[in-house]
Design goal:
alpha/beta, two-stranded antiparallel sheet, 10 helices, 22% strand
Length: 279
Amino acid sequence: MTSISAALQAAVQNLHQQDQSRLDAEVLLAHVLQKPRSYLHAWPEADLDGDQAVRYAELIRRRVEGHPIAYLTGHREFWSLDFEVSPATLIPRPETELLVEQALTLLPGDEALAIADLGTGSGAIAIALAHQCPRWHLFAVDQSTDCLKIAQRNAARHAAANVSLINADWCAAFAPASLDAVIANPPYVPNRDPHLKRGDLRFEPISALAAGPDGLDDLSVIIMQSSRILKNGGLVLLEHAPEQTATLHKLLNRNAFSGIHTLPDLAGVERVTVARKSP
């Protein structure tokens, strides 16, 4: 038999090249035991049974290979909510919470608004907004049926009855002037960006990350299509890379948007651009 403390010590040694080896080891063991991390500290001498030891060793082996913690546990927290994720979905990131924050700041929470979350993936953005504003109706759009299955389970877990799932390509499912807001965290990494071969990005779906030679292919389409489907005064909120800011401002201006401005994330990096459809 192997105790919790011994299992953790061995795992940390195996993960010595990881930046957060102790944290990773604890998160994965807590997942195997189906206990909070505090349990590991309270009961360090408790033993793992044979199946638990085997499962834990396999997870540590895969983590050493670089597999993201979120894919190993099947979960990631976003906007203080727990979301199921899989290798079919992008892993929700803290900087993307800026999209949710700005939508809640700029849109009236007590009105019955129609809002599209384009490329919803796990459904994190749409469900977070639906959870905060029950009067809003969120359309969670993705061209991947695998993503939509996960988004459906996440919506059910969080009782997000005001979320509708749509299998479509970007704005194709919406009529002209039918939405109050469009929100998107689309692929925006250049195809040849070396970061795609490093860290967690190696294991995430390339279709959710890369978008052409300058990373602007999907953002350009979304801007053009959003101009058609938004009501006058409707809001568009887009996550992007900082080096894309100036080009996005030009594209938005050309497609009848005004009030264009870009906001930094918590690291001070330009991350979300906001604009309104001009009357």
